[in-house]
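Quick one, T. Sequence first:
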Amino acid sequence: MTPDHGQEDWARAAFARSREAYRSSRAPVDRILTVARARRKRRRVAAAVASAACVVGIGLSVTYLTPPPASVAPARRPSPPASSPAATPTPRTVGVRVGGGKTDGKRWSVALEFHPTLPKGYAPPPHGGPGTSLLCQRMYIGGVRVDHQGGPWSDCQPVTGTNDPGPAGEMGLWGLHDKGADGTRLMVANPEPEVAYGVVTLTDGTQIKARTVTVPGTSYRAWAAPVPDGQTIAVVDQYDNHHHRLTHDTNWH
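Structure tokens:
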């Protein structure tokens, strides 16, 4: 059958009119590319998160597996300091006030002073015992020490230890001049252990009582009584704790 060229032309014209009436839209290339980029971006983020999770997981595992410092090297207690040998304490001087007061308007006092070792600078008397310690009798009248002219160790005697019986039984009358013959004087006794006190009776009948005092930690003791200027001693008596008279001495007038 021979084609009808008139109909073919008509068909082509009709198709052209139809295409013009319904224009086909362009392929959404931009939108497709945008969606593809978004998908790639999401995949990258997901991959990064997964990678970070792996790193964190590894870090946690490392942290967990690494022991704490205390378990690696337990803290050592500090060693106690080496104790130094205890130094031997230096024996100290011990003193005691025997008596004191005011006579003839002057202050007076008597004290015993015990040095456990011989003091530096002390020279023993030429005819005295060597001794290992020193017992000093310190007597003051009006602020002046009796026998101060003899140096710092006058009226001191060497003794052996804390219980030397040598000084016991001594008695003397002391003053600042004329060997205690006038002026204000001090009667000082170093009595035997049983003597509790002494009584000095003057020629005018006045009696002066003085109690025995002992240096702590020793057997050295003394009592002291003042004798006013112009007065004379009639008798010196000593008594025990029961007031029994132990001695009676009239050699002081």
